[in-house]
UniProtKB/TrEMBL annotation:
It holds the Pfam family DNA_pol3_finger. This is DNA polymerase III subunit alpha. It comes from Chryseobacterium kimseyorum. Keywords: DNA replication, DNA-directed DNA polymerase, Nucleotidyltransferase, Transferase. SUPFAM superfamilies: PHP domain-like. The keyword Transferase applies.
Amino acid sequence: MFLNCHSFHSLRYGTLSVTELVRQAEELGIKELVLTDINTITAIYEFKKECENVGIKPIAGIEVRKENKLLYIAIAKEFSGIGEVNKILTAHNCYGVELSEMAPEFKQVFVIYPLSNIPENLKENEFIGIREEELNLLIRPEFKDKSHKMVVLHPVTFSTKKEYNLHRILRAIDNNTILSKLSEDDVCRKSEYFTSELNLIKSFVHYPEIINNTTEILAKCGFDFTYKERGSTENKNKKYYLESREEDIALLNTLAYEGLEKRYGLENEVARKRVEKELKVIGDLNFSAYFLITWDIVQHSNKMGFMHVGRGSGANSIVSYCLGITDICPLELDLYFERFLNLNRTAPPDFDLDWSWQDRDAMLEYIFTKYDKEHVAFCGTNVEFKYKSIFREVGKAFGLPKEELDILATKSVNEHHSDKIVKQVYEYGKLLEKYPNQRSMHACGILISEEPITNYTALEMPPKGFPIVQFDMYVAEDIGLEKFDILSQRGLGTINDTVKLIKETQGIDVDIRDTTLSKNESVCNEYLSVGKTIGCFYIESPAMRGLLRRLKCEDYITLVAASSIIRPGVAQSGMMREYIFRHNHPDEFEYFHPIFEEHLKDTYGIMVYQEDVLKIAQYFGGLSLGDGDILRRAMSGKGRSLSALQKVKTHFFKSCIAKGHSIELTTEAYRQIESFAGYSFCKAHSASYAVESYQSLYLKVYYPLEFMVSVINNQGGFYRTEVYIHEARMSGAIVQNPCVNTSEFQTVLKGKEIYLGFMVLQSLETKVAQMISEERDNNGCYKSLEDFIKRIPIGIETIQILIFIGAFRFTGKQKNELLIEARLLLINFKPENRNLMLIEEPVQDYKLPELKRERFEDAFDELEIIGFPVSCSPFDLLETKYRGAVFVKDLLKFHKRQVKMLAYLISRKHVPTKKGSMFFGTWIDVNGDYFDTAHFPDSLKQYDFQGGGCYLLLGTVEVDYHFPTITIHKMAKMPMIPDPRYAYDEQKKYDAHRLVREDVSMTSRKPYPQAHEINLPRQKFN
């Protein structure tokens, strides 16, 4: 009897989760149920499973609405009917086709119209839905001959009075209005909750035909969809790259052996055997098409001259390496083949393909065009109501003013007012937690299907311009659509741009894809060992630079390990600390067990990679590869797998005892395995990161100015622009402020001079910034300020920004003089008369009195406009001339000694400890060298950070494996000189000081274990 049920995936309308909807139906003994969410199929696949679990027949449908108006309810007779409705909604969502008031010709769909929208003539598959409260209308003459086309319409939207109120709040949020302004059409009726079927039949007892029509529709409909079977590799992805499985296998074999010859030569028997082994597994698992599609995407990238990185477990494969999908040699690193593919695996291997953020859209265009837009879409994600948005949105629905909304959204609950309305906002806000609020695009997952993708889902078009499906990646996996991960990152953009800039400035072609260029290059290794890696992909953060120094990292293999042990899973388990000890003291420990020595010798018997855990599970614990894969999934941080980890535990213990291991030995081995049930990398992933890190380091070492300019233009990485400009200076650059006759939108390099781009001017419109260089390229340099105003449509506020940053210094005039000239030029100025006024009334050459500027006025202009001084160092702006007693270059000599230093704050990172919050700081001294500090909770109580700027520091140097850190006991922020621009204005002379920046990163993780809590055995277990 229930042909029109809504879940909370009817966004900002329904209040019931799918689980709750089905539970309530089961309690009432309902045997058939139709889910008809508004304009979406998001929940139908979950709905089918939930219903079948409790013996209810699931039926899928969609309620088609145009804004607030219900047009009709479409119920699929069979699964193909859903595809018919999906096509209508996709045309509307993606191509702007208006939704018709009347349903089109459907083949496998029943259509139910509400009384408010009945067509003149009903087709065979079309009916009129009659609500219980509408029965009294049936005495009207116009309905007398239509009862044979009527069905029971009892929508379900909520279940309690409180949920009805929540529904009204959701409708107010959706309509961006307050509750009191909602109209009757905006909300559902108060009767839209489950009742017993017996009650419904009693209500319609005088209309048996209506009851019969309803039961007949329920009987004729079914949800005949098949999910991906457990253990099967069959999926709904594009089946073949060519025309058949045999052709795909033949092409893949040809390409793999061609690549084998190119990568290894014909004589390498080990490589040939590995290729043969992998090709057989890929063929047996029917994954040839998946490999060929990935290869095709990479081939197009190469043709376009783009740079890509292939990561993920696919990098464990020699076939991937031979095809050019990855640049990681699995033989060199002994990458574990079973981590990549094994016969227990039912999903294709995981390829993460990275492009520069500038090139990714071009790659997406290719994929959508080549594989047909009807078959390609991004995965969706359900964005839930978040803490801040809940209180802000619910509060707005109750009519609270903006000031109160700001307090609700930004302060903790115990700081909120406690009046009646705020209590209600909190009460209903709590109910909204975990409710979906909107659908969005998955960051990288693309689906390429064999059948048109609208057979499974309607598509939506988010602002980014590529269609998305209406479900997430987990549903996609469930139904057999496996994603391709197409990612973007700024690190690749930096590498790409640096190579182009080197060609432009020095005429040198750098083949950065040739990994022999940078891997294990002596000067690069020297930079690595001392953490001189600012700007380099993945290895520039303070924590990573500290790790590189502690390991004295001098080769590629150590860098691969460092890329993994910095991850939370390894660090949190305490394995990072132990790895550092064993790396520095290889003779001061014994291997825990011979199997650990045999399989983990490269990592000193410590599990660093996901593969290491698989090896121990298999060779020490005797687990099958299938159980090993459960462990792997749990380790990759997928929360859904953590419970599966516990199921493997019993099997592991039984198997270990059977192999003759003692219970104590087994317990310790499992304890080490279990500590990895968080985020950690597979070795291939770490190796891919290490290659890219080396590529950027090679460019930094040999082409530092080109590299730093590219880092700035790609908007950096871990640090703010100021830090990269400092780094460029340390490499010999002369940094210039933007100039209208030299600068571009992006930062440019001319010899050793770096001209900052107009993009660094925070208040300058992008359109104007781009116009300045375009006009100059087309019509020559600007001759004067007057000439500039004549050619660029610009107002006085924008002119002021350019004057104060020194963009007209080519005129030889002082900023004060230029400002007066600009104002005289623009008096009574109308943009439409620009050319006329400037031609007919040239500016008079006024003789102005000499306007002197103080030495540091330019620095304060720069601080105000771009956020940091360019024309001098931050130290130059201090009142004190003291520069510290000790400098970074000497810190290693001061182990366990107290030092006093003057330093400029770069960044600080919050770290939770059992005693409270602490911070790690990163600073530069007056010579521009970096160093790190530790600020423990006790010290912070008295000597906390006071924002960006220079500080006087007092602390004790601790040298930890070649890496000096200063434990701070006291610190004080040093006062800057008053702003000379406001020498006579007491209120403003310290305003600019507040603009000095710092980078702060906060963490919410649990405290890492202390050394004494790790208890990793350093001797053989007896």
